[in-house]
Amino acid sequence: MGRALGLNARFASVLPWAATERGYQKALEHCVQEGDFVWDVGANVGHYSLLLAGKVGADGRVFAFEPSPTNFSRLKKACKGVINVQLLEMGLGEVNDSLSFQQGTDDLGATSRDIGSEGVGILIDVRTAESLIKAGEALMPNAVKIDVEGFEYEVLKGFGPYLGDRSLRVIGIEVHFSIVKSRGLPQVPALIERLLELHGFKMSWPDFSHIIGIRSC
Predict the structure, then answer these.
(1) Is domain 8-214 in CATH 3.40.50.150, yes or no?
(2) Euclidean distance between the first and final Cα of the chain, in Å?
(3) What are 61-64's contacts with CB under 8 Å, separation 24+?
(4) Hey, CA dihedral for 156, 162, 165, 170, is it positive or negative?
């Protein structure tokens, strides 16, 4: 299916980047099935968007969220011609808002992040998952991958009641301990675990910075 969607060459260009989180990637892939709807929250330049597009096939869809204009431009180029990836130039959060955004200085822009309403940076659109699902702007996901540089908990809370929807089987999160600590919120990793457990997910840590919550797969 990946070959039919024109993805193989794109995988080759990004696979070395994934080597440090292979266990997490495999655990996430294992729970994604053909025909699934997957949200890639913090899609960056498209590594997971393309990988998961190959898993869901022509009957599934990946919704790739990326608020950085610079990263989004590269994401759009990477996903050109991939018909089952829908690109959304926005961030996700706990409330619908506009926030300042700081572009990362690394080569991939992977350290780009929200800096709040008081920061000086690019103004970006932030939406809640709940509002997008209710409005039909993005379909209810079966799997979600979240990497938003320290604002993962806010993204989860923005799902509202949909976090308890049984069709959502797996959530994969990169936990940025140093960033949440710098925000004065060192308790966030524990809060993420607690929130997922309250909604029936079983936790595992495939490495020191990634958490997988699985309801069933």
Answers:
(1) yes
(2) 21
(3) 61/37, 61/85, 61/86, 61/139, 62/37, 62/38, 62/86, 63/37, 63/38, 63/39, 63/88, 63/138, 63/139, 63/141, 64/40, 64/88
(4) negative
| pTM for the model | 0.83
Alpha carbon distance 128, 215 (integer Å) = 22
Euclidean distance between CA atoms 87 and 90, whole angstroms: 9
Read off the DSSP letter of residue 139.
P
CB 143 within 8 A of CB 178: no
Question: What percent of the chain clears pLDDT 90, i.e. is strictly above it?
Answer: 71
Measured CA to CA in angstroms, residue 126 lies from 4, 120, 123, 170 at distances of 34, 16, 10, 23
List the chain domain ranges: 8-214
Using one digit for the tens of pLDDT, what is the confidence trace for 161-196? 999 999 999 999 999 999 999 989 999 999 999 999
Identify the sign of the CA torsion 133, 137, 139, 143. negative
Q: What is the pLDDT of residues 54-77, one digit of tens each?
A: 999 999 999 999 998 889 999 999
